[in-house]
Please model this.
Amino acid sequence: MTHELVILAADAVYRTSTMEAVTFWVLGTLAVLGAVAVVAAPKAVYSAIFLACTMIVLAMLYIAQDALFLGVVQIVVYTGAVMMLFLFVLMLIGVDSADSLVETIRGQRLAAIGAGAAFGILLIAGIGNVSVNGFTGLADANAGGNVDGLAALIFVRYLWAFELTSALLITATLAAMVLTHRERIDRRKTQRELATERFAPGGHATPMPNPGVYARHNAVDVAARLPDGSDAATSVSGILPPRTMAAKNGASS
Model:
């Protein structure tokens, strides 16, 4: 009887380890492919979508390793809030591919390459440290509960690292504002000059209607209707191909 229990326990451990290995290789492959697609995508919107997919795969890896809190936070906070907000901003304002070829700050590409190399060295050092010294098992890490163990690591053992990471995120936010700031190369027009242009022949005395207003479809790629019934071509963003609507049934063409 004892011999049979040992065989059953060994078989259960073998099946569990096999399923964990299969899960790791499948999800790990998807995560790497998603990360490569983020860099290789031709448009920023596609990169954001691939990054969201990669974050979801990482959340599944966390859950598979019994890190339930990290998995839920990865989906709710990062994928559901931060990445979706980033994606909506990209879809609203648009990003021109020519903007990535212009350096708003001299030497920012060299700094980015140096930062990437530094993070790569830290990653290699971390993997080497774990390979040499070993790692704590899931049973010891989650002995007092996954949330309690994570809180003890963040707010007790690695408090300074957590605070430095917060400062780094704030610095990154300010740096993003500086990088996206564009210097004005021409003189700002006064209100009188703007009013003169609007009332000049060919101008528009009133503000242009939003895309889709008084049209057959309320969409950002459908031109608005002017009082004379013609399309307002300037109401559609230049990065979107304007969509025309059929006169009979209103279907897109």
